[in-house]
Design a protein that fits this description.
The chain is an alpha+beta fold. The chain has 18 helices and 11 strands. Strands 3-4-8-11-10-9-7 form a 7-stranded mixed beta barrel. Strands 1-2 form a two-stranded parallel sheet. Strands 5-6 form a two-stranded antiparallel sheet.
């Protein structure tokens, strides 16, 4: 059980010995009695009257206390950090693995593995029944659920467990798999932690880290294990390498974990070196989204000098770690506002069952909302960035708009429908966003909608290929140049899209094929129209993967017709 006491100490010279001697004596007695004391020092903004020498002496005495009792001294400077430092519940660390870190079949190091971080889940709320008699003091008030399985033919016969089997969807069908088959097909890896190899730290991208963080330490008291872990960790640190491990924490575990081991070099002589372990994703766990590079956007789409200065000032204003001050919202001193608010209300309800839900506490507001004092002090910066960037309200689409389009007769002149024109247009644009093929009526709009879709990485390649095919179809079907203007519009859209997506190959090969076709058929009108619009090949300065320099792209002098890229 933890007990918090607030001490306000007034320094006086001791009658016997020094202050340091008295602190050591008290610390030894506390350790002998199994007592620990965590010191939390609250220091706000220091005034000019603050006695720095007294504070330094207090820090020195608290440091002696911490070393002798094996506890730590925490310094906080605001109510939020104080709330996070007051931890009323201590979680005893439990190992998830004790065994060998297998470097090779002939070299194994005994290690213990703990969880360094783990998400604190919201408490499970259980159902409570009031149907138990109030006179029954032994009633559990639990709610239990029983399930019955019946055939879908409408009969009332209950299907017993031995006649039931699980089915798994595989495409349009359901494949039944018995319990015996499922046990046989289950993957049953061998328990253990094995090294797969080393790689440069730069090869492991930060956003690949999954789930919780684990801490690998050498087996306590095992000198050989401590030396081996320290040697490997320091070698990895010096060469900027990380290790890739295959981990199965316990016997019977049905999955294999592959992760990255990062060295953690200790800054204290009394604490051995260790490793941090992060789980890495498999290919099924990775979500690929293709976004164009900001460098590929035209200058008109990029911020100017004044806009960049305004953005820099905003970022600097909201810096959580300004020079000369403690960093705000440190994870170890920032409580979860959702859990904190729930437990506060739970405590209140235990004392006052009819109590109303109180408003959000000011200390928790500093976690969930921007610092209003800071925002008001820097109002000029906020005003500047609002002036530099045009802010437009995104109108909300009414739920009845789609129904309105279906029910309102064509050509209706009802006045109450005039206000829903913009909503109808918005619905129409949403329906266009589901386009899966470039049509003949609006090929440019269809292409722009397809290439902007981000629900699958395949849409970019599909949009480019379909637009390229559409341009060539328009060219072969053209009679007397009737499709030239439409072809040029499609080429403009394709060129812009290929630059944004950094895919110059399909566009360049299509243009070379187009010019070769025009030379073969002795068509001069279309090349002249393209030249007047300055539609050249995509050069290296526009897309890094291009095979053409600026001069080569402008010349468009192709002697041989290349094979089109798929």
């Amino acid at each position: 059980m933890m007990r918090w006491e607030w001490w306000y100490l007034e320094q006086k010279d001791p009658l016997e010995g020094s202050k340091e001697d008295q602190v050591r004596t008290i610390a030894v007695q506390m350790t002998a009695q199994g007592m620990k004391m965590q010191s939390i020092v609250v220091r706000g903004r220091l005034s000019q009257d603050a006695n720095k020498s007294i504070m330094d002496e207090n820090d020195r005495l608290l440091s002696i206390w911490s070393k002798k009792t094996g506890t730590r001294t925490v310094y906080v400077d605001n109510p939020t950090s104080l709330l996070g430092a007051l931890k009323t519940r201590r979680i005893t660390p439990v190992t998830v693995f004790r065994g060998h870190l297998e470097i090779s079949p002939k070299m194994k190091i005994k290690v213990w593995v703990y969880k360094k971080t783990q998400e604190e889940k919201f408490p499970t709320l259980k159902k409570y029944s009031e149907k138990a008699p109030s006179t029954n003091k032994f009633a559990t008030h639990q709610v239990k659920a029983d399930y019955e399985y019946k055939a879908i033919d409408g009969s009332s016969e209950v299907v017993p467990p031995e006649r039931r089997i699980k089915g798994y969807r595989y495409g349009p069908q359901v494949v039944p798999i018995s319990t015996a088959e499922w046990d046989a097909v289950k993957f049953k890896p061998e328990k253990g932690v094995k090294l797969l190899g080393f790689t440069d730290a730069s090869n492991i991208i930060r956003h690949y880290y999954m789930k919780d963080v684990y801490l690998f330490i050498p087996e306590p008291g095992n000198t050989r294990a401590i030396l081996a872990v320290s040697a490997i960790a320091r070698a990895m640190k010096e060469t900027n390498k990380v290790a890739i491990l295959r981990c199965v924490w316990r016997q019977g575990q049905q999955n294999v974990v592959v992760g990255v081991l990062t060295p953690n070099i200790s800054q204290s002589d009394k604490i051995p070196d260790s490793f941090y372990f992060n789980v890495l994703p498999f290919t099924e766990d990775v979500r690929e989204y293709q976004f164009p590079s900001f460098n590929s956007f035209p200058a008109s789409w990029q911020p100017n000098e004044e806009q960049q200065k305004a953005a820099d000032a905003l970022v600097q204003m909201l810096n959580l770690a300004p020079s000369g001050k403690e960093e705000a919202l440190l994870p170890e001193f920032t409580p979860n506002p959702v859990l904190e608010r729930f437990y506060r209300h739970l405590e209140l309800k235990s004392k006052q069952p009819d109590a109303a839900v109180p408003p959000l506490d000011g200390t928790l507001k500093r976690i969930t909302e921007p610092d209003q004092e800071l925002v008001s002090e820097n109002k000029s910066i906020i005003d500047t960035i609002c002036k530099q960037f045009e802010l437009k309200e995104n109108p909300k689409l009414k739920k009845s708009s789609r129904r309105l389009l279906r029910e309102k007769p064509s050509g209706s002149n009802e006045e109450d429908g005039a206000a829903d024109v913009s909503d109808a247009q918005a619905v129409n644009s949403i329906e266009k966003a589901s386009v899966v093929k470039i049509g003949n009526l609006t090929p440019v709009q269809d292409f722009e909608l397809m290439i902007s879709r981000r629900d699958s990485p395949e849409w970019v390649a599909k949009a480019i290929k379909q637009m390229r095919d559409k341009i060539l179809d328009l060219l072969t079907d053209s009679h007397g140049g009737d499709n030239y203007l439409k072809i040029v519009d499609c080429i403009v859209a394709l060129r812009k899209g290929c630059i944004l997506e950094q895919e110059p190959g399909p566009y360049n090969s299509m243009m070379r094929h187009l010019y070769g076709y025009c030379q073969e058929k002795r068509i001069s009108g279309l090349p002249q129209l393209l030249a007047s619009r300055e539609l050249t090949l995509i050069s290296k300065s526009e897309a890094a993967d291009s095979d053409f320099t600026d001069d080569e792209a402008r010349s468009l002098s192709v002697k041989t017709e290349p094979k089109l890229e798929d």
